[in-house]
Amino acid sequence: MSWDPGEAVSYARRHAHLHTTHFCARAVAAAINAGGVHIDSADARDFEYALTKAGFSQVYGEPVKGDIAVINPFSGSMYGHVCIYDGQGTWYSDFTQRSMYPGPGYRKAAPAFKIYRHP
């Protein structure tokens, strides 16, 4: 099965909660798997390795549907965060987010992040 970012985003949207369950990496890994690419579940802080192992590469510029953001940890979150972009302005992890940064602590700290895309 080849990568289908639309199916990955659809899965993420259907399974998103209203509020975080604190399992962003598990939720995004499930969405990626639903999109046709096997990825090992990992903590958010280790997600970059899992993504590159699954064939994703870091990209720059505006995100597109199916892109994955890996956000660095900061003092308020020791694991960091991962989320998937729907191509229309919404990011999903274990919940529907208001922005790429999942909460006020992240928005205030604005830790570094990387965007990954599957070819």
Task: Pick out its properties.
119 residues, alpha+beta, endopeptidase fold (from Nostoc punctiforme), five-stranded antiparallel sheet
Strand content: 15-25%
Identify the overall geometry. globular
Distance between the termini: 13 Å
CATH architecture label name? Alpha-Beta Complex
Compact summary:
The protein is of the alpha+beta class and 119 residues long.
Describe the protein in words.
This protein has 119 residues and is α+β, with helices and mostly antiparallel strands. The chain has a single domain (5-117), classed as endopeptidase fold (from Nostoc punctiforme) (Alpha-Beta Complex). Helices cover 29% and strands 16% of the residues. It contains four helices and five strands; from the N terminus they run H-H-H-E-E-E-E-H-E. It has helices at residues 5-15, 24-34, 47-53, 104-109, and strands at residues 57-59, 68-71, 81-85, 91-92, 113-117. A five-stranded antiparallel sheet has the order 1-5-2-3-4, covered by helices on one side. Helix 1 crosses helix 2 (24-34). The longest helix has 11 residues, at 5-15. 37% of the residues are buried.
SSE inventory with pairings:
Elements (H helix, E strand, L loop, with lengths): L4 H11 L8 H11 L12 H7 L3 E3 L8 E4 L9 E5 L5 E2 L11 H6 L3 E5 L2
Antiparallel strand pairs: 1-5, 2-3, 2-5, 3-4
Helix pairs in contact: 1-2
